[in-house]
Amino acid sequence: MCGNEALAEAAIIAGCDAYFGYPITPQNEITAYMSRRMAEEGRVFVQSESELAAINMVFGASATGKRAMTSSSSPGISLMQEGISYLAGAELPAVVVNVMRGGPGLGNIAPSQADYFQATRGGGHGDYRTIVFGPSTVQEVADCMQLAFDLADQYRMTAVVLADGFLGQMMEPVVLEKKPGRKLPPKDWALTGAKARPQNIVRSLWLPEGSLEELNHKLQAKYDRVQADEVVCEQYDTEDADVVVVAYGVAARIARSAVNKARHEGIRAGLIRPITLWPFPTEQISMAADELRIFLTVEMSNGQMVEDVKLAVNGKAPVLFHGRPGGGVPTVEEILERIRQLSIPRRVRTA
Amino acid sequence: MKTVFARTPTLKDCPTHYCPGCGHGIAHRLIAEIIDEMGIRDRTIGIAPVGCAVLAYNYLDVDMIEVAHGRAPAVATGMKRTNPGKIIFSYQGDGDLAAIGTAEIIHAAHRGEQITVVFINNAVFGMTGGQMAPTTTLGQVTATTPKGRSAAREGYPLQIAELLAILPGAAYVERCALSGPARVRKTKGAIRHAFELQAEGAEGLSLVEVLSPCPTYWRMPPAKAMEWIESEMIKVFPLGRLKG
Lengths: 351, 244
Ligand SMILES: Cc1ncc(C[n+]2csc(CCOP(=O)(O)OP(=O)(O)O)c2C)c(N)n1
What we know:
CATH architecture of the largest domain in chain A: 3-Layer(aba) Sandwich
Oligomer: heterodimer
Bound molecules: thiamine diphosphate
Order of helices and strands of chain B: HEEHEHHEEEHHEHEHHE
Helix content of chain A: 40-55%
Number of strands of chain B: 9
Mean pLDDT of chain A: 96
Largest sheet of chain B: 7 strands, mixed
Radius of gyration of chain A: 21 Å
Shape of chain B: globular
């Protein structure tokens, strides 16, 4: 199964009631797959007239307590930002998949990680966060989906799955099964018709003085809980590493090969792979930076996550960057060469 | 003593924030009465627009949502598709529906979404200070047409009801007005019909356009505003059933 189809089926297994989307490469397999499978399941599929409409259809379905998702690629995700901001303000759960492509503008349809800032900083207007996953294999893309729906419901937030053209198109064996989900709070806020209860209102406008500030404090307290409890991150051969590569998604797969080759050459290299990009594994990277080592962030962009790595390291160690923007993909050789260069100081030290 | 008239329960017992002579309050009351008469309060979900009616949920005692400017028909689509048994209505102004949200209303109608739309045409953007709307009439002075709207500069008034009526997905389209008791009664009948069609499961979207006074930004007293609907607006926006 390709990554796009695996994530679509995983969403169905996770109990997605409704899918709304507008075609864009490289995620068209999701829309096509959903059009067939959601109908088979007796669930809702609508091909919307735009991404603007798609995210607002998600908004409507979610407000009634249903599990709703949309998927798109970079330009379409830009159009959804207004809606994602409204979802944050109204505290509605939603799942948004971004199969990233090269930008800016229409860019190209090659894989990219250039939407990291947009996803991890909120993306639209206002002070808010979304939960962001950066899976690295088709299996992990699929596994993220259930967690994304669960976390979205638990925290009443948007969960974004950041994949890229490679992951979307890549064929890999994958096990799709329903895992025991989280225990979730009841959706007593949902709009279901005011039957034997007072009216429910879903809104994001807060005019009385201080009321919006209060909402923002409440949101921030929620984001702090997410940061404390929901970080997922893999550490690979980092224990004794002199050079720690930090990478996510497809870049992390390539980086892992480079780390393995470096180890063969006797270079002590390791990999920290954030799986949640927000909440970011700040704590894990900060602890790794307590040892004497050099960090190398590898991305398919001109350097976005590297800023979070620097914030986490907070001056305790050098943080370098290797990236390829605009649909370029770093090679194992390129990364290995950077690791070799960075490992020289230790060789000199120990000589 | 016999009660001959009382506030309908779905209309909350509170003053509104609307200007004197504004039509929104009348339209709210009609909707509340219809919901109570049809006995559908416990399965109705309303959508408030961005515009002067953004706080409609403070006056209408049903489950309600406030959505981004112009996107109500898309939100309604998400709600109705996942809840076919519920009654979903959106309440939108002419900036919301005929300017920024044109794509959403056209495509909701084009898909034949089984929703009800109450479209308040007051020929201006009220909330932001009386700027030109697509429905502003030729010669009308607004905050952004200080010399009056000119067809050459700003185009002709946009007739959304006529546009929608040609779509097979639109089940019912009617244009009414709030200028006088007889007109208000007619408007109520039209909105009620739009709700009934949805409740019966009729295929397609039902929309009632309501010509509604905005004395503040028409810069005239409330009584004059009612006259202006009769003398000017109806010429550009003829009343009547356009579809269904
Ligand atoms: C995306 C966006 N653009 C602009 C606005 C500002 N705005 C708020 S209401 C409005 C126009 C409302 O006019 P109308 O829909 O005619 O409703 P009325 O206030 O007249 O009832 C505008 C432009 C906004 N809130 N959001």
